Amino acid sequence: MIQPIAKKDIRKLSLQELEVFFVAMGDKKFRAKQVYDWLWNKSLKNFAEMSNISKATREMLEKHFVINHIKVDQIQRSSDGTIKNAVKLFDGNIVESVLIPTPKRITACVSSQVGCSLDCNFCATARLKRMRNLNPDEIFDQVVTIMEEAKLYHGRPLTNIVFMGMGEPLLNYANVLSAIEKITSADGLGLSPKRITVSTVGVCKMITKLADDDVKFNLAVSLHSAINETRSRLMPINNSNPVEDLAESLRYWYAKTKRRVTYEYVIWEGINDDEVHANALAKFCKIIPSKVNLIQYNPIDDGEFQQADPEKVAMYMRVLEGQGIVAKVRKSRGQDIDAACGQLANKNDIHPMLDND
Questions:
Q1: With CB atoms 3.0 to 4.6 Å apart as the test, which of 148, 216, 313, 339 could cross-link to 334 if both were Cys?
Q2: Rounded to 5 degrees, what are φ and ψ at 114?
Q3: What tens-digit pLDDT sequence spans the chain (357 residues)?
Q4: 8 A C-beta contact, residue 350 and residue 338
Q5: Residue 70's closest CA among 49, 95, 47, 53?
Q6: CB count in 10 Å sphere of residue 192
Q7: Taking a C-beta distance cutoff of 8 angstroms, is the pair 74, 56 a contact?
Q8: Distance in Å from the first CA to the final CA of the chain
C-alpha cells in the first residue's frame, strides 16, 4: 500500500523557497509574496480564505502543505483583567501564554519551550519535563492570539511582548530570534523591537551571542541573588554560569549594545531578605547601567519558598535607591488563575494528546 506523502508546514519555508516552489509548479513568482503576506502579515490560518488567489492555486497549496497554527484549548480570565491561554500545539502538546493589562499597556507573556530543563527550585514550570522547543510560528501565533484578545476583551492594542513564559528563550535561540524577526518585520506584525523583552536565567555564552548578533530588543535577567551560594540554591544553572561569569557577559552586552539590562528579583523569607543580599544586588547593578524589578513571589503549592515581609522589600528599595539605582516593586497579576510569574505549569488537567484536531 502506498503511503500518502506527509505535507510540509508551509510556514517553515522562506519567501525565496516559496518563490522556487511556485516557479517549479508553473505558477507566477509573485504568487509567493501574496501567500507569504497572508501567512505572516494577515496571520491567516487556512488556504481557503486567500481571496486574491485562484481556487486552483489554493487547492494546489492544500495538496502540498499544512498551516500548523496553534489553538486555544482553554482560556481563563482573572478578576484583574489578566487572561491565560492554554495553547494546544499541532502535536498535542500544551503551553501557556498570558495577556497582562495595566492602565498604560497590554503585554503578551509568551512561552518559548514546552516545559523547561533548568530546574529553578521556585518555579512551577521547572517541574515539567522539557519536551521540545517551540517553532517560530508557534511563538508568533501566541502573540497574534493575544493581539486579538487585547482588542476583544480590553478594546486596546497590544503594546509589549515579554519572553517570560514557559521555557528558557536563549536555549531556543534560533527559533526565538526567527519569531522576533517575523513579529517586528513589515512583512509580519510590524511591532517595534524596543517593545520586546527577552528574559533569561543567565546563560552567559548566549548573552554574548545576543550582543554579537546586534539584536534590537531588550534583555532581562532573572537574578534573585548576586551571591553565588544563594543563587545556586535557587537556580542550579548558577553552578555552570556563576555570578562572575554572568557579570562578564553583561559587560560585553553593554559594550556592544549600549543598552541597560533589567534584573528580575524576588525576595524570599529567610533566603535573601537581609541587607547582605540587598547590598550585593546594589553592587551587581553598578556593573553596567541597569534597573531592578522587585517581583512579588507567587507560591507553587509548597512551603519551601515564602514571600518576604513588606518591610524587607522596603529595605531593599532603600538600599537600591540610596545608591542611585532605579528600582520598582512589581505587583503580580493573574494570581487567581495561576498566571503570575513562576506559576505557568498546566495545572488544569490538560495533557499532551495524540490527535491534531
A1: 339
A2: -85, 105
A3: 444 567 899 999 999 999 999 999 999 999 999 999 999 999 999 999 999 999 999 999 999 999 999 999 999 998 889 999 999 999 999 999 999 999 999 999 999 999 876 656 666 655 666 679 999 999 999 999 999 999 999 999 999 999 999 999 999 999 999 999 999 999 999 999 999 999 999 999 999 999 999 999 999 999 999 999 999 999 999 999 999 999 999 999 999 999 999 999 999 999 999 999 999 999 999 999 999 999 988 766 566 788 889 999 999 999 999 999 999 998 766 555 454 444 444 444 333 322 322
A4: no
A5: 95
A6: 12
A7: no
A8: 25
As a whole number of angstroms, the distance between CA 122 and CA 124 comes to 7
* Dihedral pair phi/psi, residue 246, rounded to 5°: -60, -45
341 a catalytic residue:
yes
Distance CA 268, CA 298 (A): 11
Q: What is the value of pTM for the model shown?
A: 0.88
- Give the chain's radius of gyration (CA, Å): 22
SS3 of 144, please? helix
Report the DSSP beta bridge partners of residue 85. 75, 97
Q: Residue ranges of the alpha helices (H) in 258-291?
A: 275-285
The rounded distance, in Å, linking the Cα atoms of 350 and 226 is 37
Q: Which of the residues 109, 123, 204, 341 is marked catalytic?
A: 341
Q: Is 96 a catalytic residue?
A: yes
Residue 193 in grid coordinates: 523591537
What are the counts of helices (DSSP H) followed by strands (DSSP E) for the chain?
Answer: 10, 14
Domains within the chain, CATH numbers bracketed: 14-66 (1.10.150.530), 71-337 (3.20.20.70)
Q: Are 28 and 20 in contact (CB under 8 A)?
A: no
Catalytic entry in 96, 138, 168, 264: 96
**Residue 190 corresponds to which amino acid?**
G
**Vertex 191, ends 189 and 194: CA angle to 5°?**
155
Q: Which residue has the cell 509573485?
A: 30
Cα–Cα distance between 156 and 137 in angstroms, integer? 24
Nearest alpha-carbon partner for 43 in 176, 138, 155, 170: 138
CB atoms closer than 10 angstroms to residue 238:
24
Cell readout for 118 is 533548568
